[in-house]
From TrEMBL:
It comes from the Bacteria. The chain crosses the membrane at residues 26-47, 67-92, 99-119, 125-143, 155-173, 208-230, 237-259. The keyword Nuclease does not apply. Residues 17-263 form the HTTM-like domain. It is a multi-pass membrane protein. It is found in: Endomembrane system. It comes from Blastococcus saxobsidens (strain DD2). Pfam families: HTTM. Keywords: Membrane, Transmembrane, Transmembrane helix. GO terms for cellular component: endomembrane system. This is HTTM-like domain-containing protein.
Length: 294
C-alpha cells in the first residue's frame, strides 16, 4: 500500500517556511534597525536615567538572574547605549547582517533588562525583540532581491506569531487579573478621566459606548489567532492598516502608543512591491516568414 503523504497533510509544517522575498527583509531590516536611535533617544529616553540610580535598586528580571549580565552602573549604561546605537546604524546598511544583527539583538536585550529591572515592565516590546532576534538568521538581503527565501519566511512567521500572542495574552491577562470587571466596569472611563484628550473626552457623555468598546476590544484580542490565516498581499496590507489604525486611535484617545510593537507590525507588509525592478520592455516579435509558394 502507498504511504505517500498528501500536500494538505504537510500544510501546517509548511506554514512556518512559506517563502518570502528577500527584498521584504531588506526593507523591514532597515526600518527595524533605524528605529533604535528613535527608541533610545525618544521612546525609552528614561532608561539612561538608570545610570544615576543606586545599583541597590536593581532587581533583575529572570533572564538577568539566569545570565551573568553586568550590574547597570553608570559606565555600563552609557557603554551599552552608545554601542547599541553604533551597531544599529551599521546593521541598517545591510553589511555583515549576521554579525551586526546579532550584536544589535544582544545589546538591545541588555538595554531592555536595564530598562525593566527597576520595577516597570512593558509588554509592547516582545514582538520587536523577536524581530531583532530572527533577522540575523536570514543573512544577506538586498532591496531589489525578489528571490523567495524559506529562512525569511520562518523569520517573518515568528514575528507574526509573536504579534498575535501579544494581543491574545493581553486579553488573557485582563481576564486573569481583572475578571469580568475589566470589560463590564469603568476601565476606559478611568483611563479617559486620567489621560483623555479633546478627541476622546466626548465619549464620556455617551451611555454604554465605553463599556461596549471594552467588550469589543477583549473579543478582538481573543480572536487574534485569526491573523495567522492571512495569505494574500491585500489581506496583509489590510491587517497592518487595521492594527496600526487601532494604535493610532489609542494614542489619539489616551496618548499611549506602543511604537516598538508598531514597528514589528510593519513586518507584515509586502515591502518588495516598493523595490521591484522595472520590467524590461518586451522585445518586438519578428513575424515568421511565410512559406514559399508551391
Amino acid at each position: 500500500m502507498s504511504t505517500a503523504t498528501s500536500p494538505d497533510a504537510a500544510a501546517p509544517d509548511r506554514w512556518w517556511f512559506r517563502p518570502v522575498p528577500l527584498a521584504r527583509i531588506a526593507v523591514f531590516r532597515a526600518i527595524a534597525y533605524l528605529f533604535i536611535p528613535v527608541d533610545v533617544f525618544l521612546t525609552t529616553a528614561w532608561v539612561k536615567a538608570h545610570a544615576d540610580v543606586p545599583v541597590e535598586w536593581y532587581d533583575p528580571l529572570l533572564i538577568g538572574r539566569l545570565l551573568p549580565l553586568p550590574t547597570p552602573t553608570a559606565t555600563v549604561v552609557v557603554v551599552v547605549q552608545w554601542a547599541l546605537l553604533l551597531a544599529a546604524l551599521a546593521a541598517a546598511t545591510g553589511r555583515a547582517p549576521r554579525l551586526l544583527g546579532t550584536a544589535v539583538f544582544l545589546l538591545y536585550l541588555e538595554w531592555m533588562v536595564i530598562a525593566m529591572s527597576f520595577g516597570k515592565v512593558d509588554h509592547d516590546r516582545i514582538a520587536y525583540l523577536v524581530a531583532l532576534a530572527v533577522l540575523p538568521t536570514i543573512g544577506r538581503a538586498r532591496f531589489r532581491d525578489r528571490r523567495p527565501s524559506e529562512a525569511a519566511g520562518w523569520a517573518m512567521a515568528a514575528v507574526l506569531v509573536t504579534i498575535m500572542l501579544t494581543y491574545f495574552l493581553a486579553a488573557w491577562a485582563k481576564i486573569r487579573f481583572g475578571g469580568l470587571d475589566w470589560p463590564s466596569g469603568a476601565t476606559l472611563t478611568r483611563a479617559l478621566v486620567r489621560r483623555g484628550t479633546e478627541l476622546s473626552e466626548w465619549t464620556l457623555d455617551v451611555p454604554y459606548l465605553l463599556a461596549t468598546a471594552q467588550w469589543g476590544m477583549l473579543i478582538l484580542e481573543f480572536a487574534a489567532p485569526l491573523v495567522l490565516l492571512v495569505r494574500s498581499d491585500r489581506a496583509r496590507i489590510a491587517l497592518a492598516v487595521f492594527l496600526l489604525g487601532f494604535h493610532v486611535m489609542v494614542y489619539a484617545g489616551v496618548e499611549i502608543i506602543f511604537l516598538p510593537h508598531c514597528v514589528a507590525i510593519l513586518s507584515i507588509l509586502p515591502w518588495e512591491r516598493l523595490t521591484a525592478r522595472r520590467r524590461a520592455p518586451a522585445e518586438p516579435s519578428v513575424p515568421e516568414p511565410s512559406p514559399a509558394p508551391a
